[in-house]
């Protein structure tokens, strides 16, 4: 168990070569099949663990709240050391949540919200502090499409969308890594000291002509995993960290955990989500270059309706007759898959799965239901975001203690 995760990395590289249809790393997610990614294979090749029913029951028992549908439905499906984090919580030592976003532009789509919606649920359920990194530096080094100042501005704009997910200002600290790094530079140094260039090259595929920022950055994403990076919140306490993230971010945290092991501090816990596919089907991406590929947080109800109707790939039969005979192929159907992510009502989702799968329900009906669900989510998000002023963003970014640390004794 404590064996070096570098070995797992090697195994992963080998396994990835055996999965030509699938590339998953922080800078590239390619799924060349028409179906959902084989997440079991991914777990195996990354060397993480599946979230079991026993974890879900444990979270439910500890929080005394119904668990989020992302957990119930296996959308957050994999982890590292989740039980150790829950042990710390149970022992009254608490833990904190760390997640982030690379602010690559002004417009976020519904898929971008997933880690934040989930982190917000965990914050409420466990009543633990949250820290959120906006890695403007990462995007500057990797995308290099505009100035650092512009990536900082995207960071502020994205912070508004993140805040609109409902984070509690007294329990949440948001920072731009280009501005905050000085406060955690001691930890950045430790990571940079412990990682060699050749390791980085293996993990992130860097080479000699890449700018130095790309080489230096992984330590900046790793450092917030140590509570000593946030003295204003944790003082000198050593507090365990849990990182909700898309599974593509795991290479960063495999690297982080390897260094934690060397530094003899508790390894960062991870909890990984699946990807929301683009509207055009599994194996397609969401992006600003093709606005029909995704539902953006700025979309109007009319745009949402048009995108779902015209562009969401259906697994239904070509003709009504064929559909009624064979039913819908749910393994490729985007509207149904989106409902798994966005429709909270389990009973209704199950009904749709059965009826649509049998061909009793038509694609148009499923799409109609998805349009209703998405329109509600997006318009409510827009209303909350409109209330987030620059002053509010500044408050979230202020260096200050958080009200729920240290944890109360009675959990
Ligand atoms: N690298 C992430 C991205 O490109 C952003 C990020 C920074 C992050 N710190 C994180 C994501 C911690 C998850 C957890 O979007």
TrEMBL record:
Keywords: Aminoacyl-tRNA synthetase, ATP-binding, Ligase, Nucleotide-binding, Protein biosynthesis. InterPro entries: aa-tRNA-synth_I_CS, aa-tRNA-synth_Ic, Trp-tRNA-ligase. It comes from the Eukaryota. GO terms for cellular component: cytoplasm. GO terms for molecular function: ATP binding; tryptophan-tRNA ligase activity. CDD domains: TrpRS_core. Belongs to the class-I aminoacyl-tRNA synthetase family. This is Tryptophanyl-tRNA synthetase. It comes from Paramecium sonneborni. The lineage of its organism: Eukaryota, Sar, Alveolata, Ciliophora, Intramacronucleata.
